[in-house]
Specification:
- It is a single chain.
- The chain is built from 21 helices and no strands.
- It is mostly helical.
- The chain has a domain of 103 residues: Tetratricopeptide repeat domain (Serine Threonine Protein Phosphatase 5, Tetratricopeptide repeat, Alpha Horseshoe).
- α7 packs antiparallel against α8 and α8 packs antiparallel against α9.
- The chain is elongated, with a radius of gyration of 26 Å.
- The N terminus is likely disordered.
Length: 377
């Protein structure tokens, strides 16, 4: 028998969250009845829950601190961070702006406002296309006051990277790395690792692959538990032709973050391209079932190719059809491998279907030689 809780898990999570907030509220009120209320302990509790991932609960504590001290800048910033980590970017921006109205040079408010502008752009570049310029303006305000702050230089570097100003991003992030390594930078090893990853990505996109490899290695040393660092290191190792390192690092990334589509797909593709086709099949199968896989049609094409090589031809036809249909814009490569799958299966109507697939590949790319050769045969 299915209970109402099993039918509506999201409803029960909402109810539990409400009960937790109510419990916290009663605890705070009880504390208030026994001793004078102060904002500082509430802000401390808010920061604790924020670091623990309890964003909604953290927001409650920051709001209660603001009830006691409406002009407390740290409480406004904390509230903004709690809102931002829930994806409520407009409300978070208002909270940071409220903090800056009290202290126009507050470093945390400026840094987090810039990051929130950047995140808002990433969620919907079409609607928020001007947010990167806003973010750059804000972080430059912070830089005028604290140019020697690693967080400021790191945030500026990320924004420049997203603006595709790779040369300036490189210079800025190299400075961020230097500042992060100084005693008293205030950054944890995990944060220092993130700065190295940001620099490594910039080197990678500038085709400075050896420098990228070094940066990602430093990132892994600083934070061995970072799936992002292992994933990036594995990808660059693969591009440099080091299949052993690529497999090891990408496997580490998948183990650390089993829900990472990037790591799962990268591992499957690297295994396939490095000649371990049979081992690539379960990795690629798992990746195609993950959230967001529909936006990576090449993943289905790779799985179709792997199926063909291990003799699972019917499965190859099925996933090759998915790869061709999901591609937006349509891909000549996807249609070519769909044609190959039909050809290898050799059913009653497969020759005609293969011919149509090859023709579609050539319509999309008239210079696609493999499709032209297959069509001629």
């Amino acid at each position: 028998m299915i209970t109402s809780r099993q039918k509506h898990p999201s409803l029960w999570r909402h109810v539990l969250a409400v009960l937790l907030l109510a419990f916290a509220a009663s605890a705070v009120l009880a504390q208030g009845n026994s001793e004078p209320e102060e904002a500082a302990p509430l802000i401390e509790d808010g920061n604790f829950y924020l670091q623990s991932g309890g964003c909604a609960l953290a927001q409650f504590y920051f709001q209660d601190a603001l009830r006691i001290e409406p002009n407390n800048v740290d409480a406004h910033v904390g509230k903004g961070r709690a809102l931002a980590c829930q994806g409520a970017y407009p409300a978070a921006i208002e909270a940071y702006q409220a903090a800056l109205a009290i202290d126009a040079n507050h470093l945390d408010a400026l840094v987090h406002l810039a990051i929130t502008y950047q995140n808002q752009y990433q969620t919907d570049p079409g609607t928020y296309q001007g947010r990167l310029a806003d973010a750059l303006d804000v972080i430059q305000r912070a830089e005028r006051n604290r140019a020697d702050d690693a967080r400021v230089q790191n945030t500026k570097g990320i924004i420049l990277y997203q603006l595709n100003d790779l040369a300036q991003a490189r210079t800025t992030l190299e400075r961020a790395v230097s500042l992060a390594g100084l005693e008293g930078s205030g950054l944890s090893n995990s944060e220092k690792s993130t700065v190295q990853v940001n620099l490594g990505r910039t080197y990678r996109d500038l085709e400075e692959l050896e420098l990228a490899l070094q940066a990602f290695r430093r990132a892994v040393v600083l934070d061995p538990a970072s799936a992002t660092a292992h994933n990036n290191l594995g990808n660059v190792a693969y591009r440099l032709g080091d299949c052993d390192m690529a497999e090891f690092e990408l496997s580490q990334a998948v183990n650390l973050d089993p829900n990472s589509l990037s790591a799962a797909s990268s591992l499957g593709i690297a295994l396939f391209e490095c000649g371990q086709v049979a081992n690539s099949v379960p990795r690629l199968e798992a990746a195609t079932k993950m959230t967001g896989a529909a936006f990576l049609p090449a993943l289905f094409t790779y799985l179709a190719r792997a199926y063909l090589e291990v003799g699972r031809v019917d499965d190859a036809v099925f996933v090759a059809q998915q790869g061709a249909l999901l591609s937006s814009p349509e891909s000549a490569d996807a249609y070519y491998w769909l044609g190959r799958a039909y050809t290898q299966r050799g059913g009653p109507s497969d020759a005609s279907s293969a011919q149509q697939a090859y023709q579609r590949a050539l319509e999309l790319d008239s210079g696609y030689a493999p499709a032209r050769e297959a069509l001629g045969q």
